[in-house]
Design a protein that fits this description.
239 residues; alpha/beta; TIM Barrel; 8-stranded parallel barrel; 8 strands
Length: 239
């Protein structure tokens, strides 16, 4: 097993929408990029999308960061994509693989990338979707493809073979990187690293477990026993 974060080949991106948390993650050298989405932003209580994004970009000026369009209309997606891209050179525009009616957004992806916009195509879960995305991307424009491996695993399927196949498909475009999205545990970082996935984007609670790498399991067991004992004592339980 890899014993230190520095030895990981997969790039670690932080996924969140808490401004202070994003600033904290941006300052960590081994966090190489950031992502967010409307769901995380709503949970964080963000009400002014652009104001929040610009506040983040005043701090995150170099590392790549992804902001998502939120329209369901393809033409409006194009307009929002151009607007979001104008906020910074390090911005990637997240485009969902379809709208809520299941209509492909390939024309949006092609439109934006032909204009030099870096995109992060998101919410993919099938190999057919990966193939369609590759056809819409421009090989001379940097892009990300986010396959939601964690959600695939939630259905009882092993995401690793699908992620490996996605990597093979994306090899035809050297400017496109595969993101292992929606990880559920720290083990997923090592799974992504093991197949040479380019990037994994994880929430802060998962990334903060990186200091557990190769922790002595006997020590960890004892700490767990102590935690249970101390909590029972603090609660004044008795029989």
């Amino acid at each position: 097993m890899t014993t230190t974060v520095e030895k990981l080949k997969v790039k670690l991106f932080a996924d969140g929408a808490d401004l202070s948390g994003m600033i904290e993650m941006n300052a960590i050298p081994h966090i190489q990029g950031l992502t967010t989405n409307p769901t995380l932003m709503r949970k964080a209580g963000i009400t002014d999308y652009k104001k929040f994004a610009l506040e983040v970009l005043s701090e995150v000026t170099v590392k790549p960061i992804s902001f998502e369009v939120f329209s369901d209309n393809l033409e409006e997606m194009k307009r929002q994509g151009l607007e979001i891209a104008s906020w910074g050179q390090n911005v990637y525009v997240k485009i969902p693989i379809t709208n809520t009616l299941g209509k492909s957004t390939s024309e949006v992806i092609e439109y934006l990338t032909k204009r030099g916009v870096k995109v992060n195509v998101t919410a993919l879960m099938t190999i057919d979707q990966v193939r369609k995305v590759v056809d819409a991307l421009q090989p001379d424009v940097a892009s990300y493809v986010s396959v939601f491996a964690g959600r695939i695993a939630d259905t009882g399927r092993d995401p690793v073979p699908l992620m490996q196949e996605a990597l093979e498909i994306l090899r035809t475009n050297s400017n496109t990187e595969l993101i292992w999205a929606s990880p559920r545990e720290l083990l997923n970082v090592f799974q992504a690293n093991g197949i040479s996935c380019h990037i994994i984007t994880a929430t802060y609670d998962i990334l903060k477990k990186l200091n557990l790498i190769d922790k002595n399991l006997s020590d960890y067991s004892l700490e767990t026993v102590q935690m249970f004992y101390n909590d029972a004592k603090a609660a004044n339980y008795n029989l």
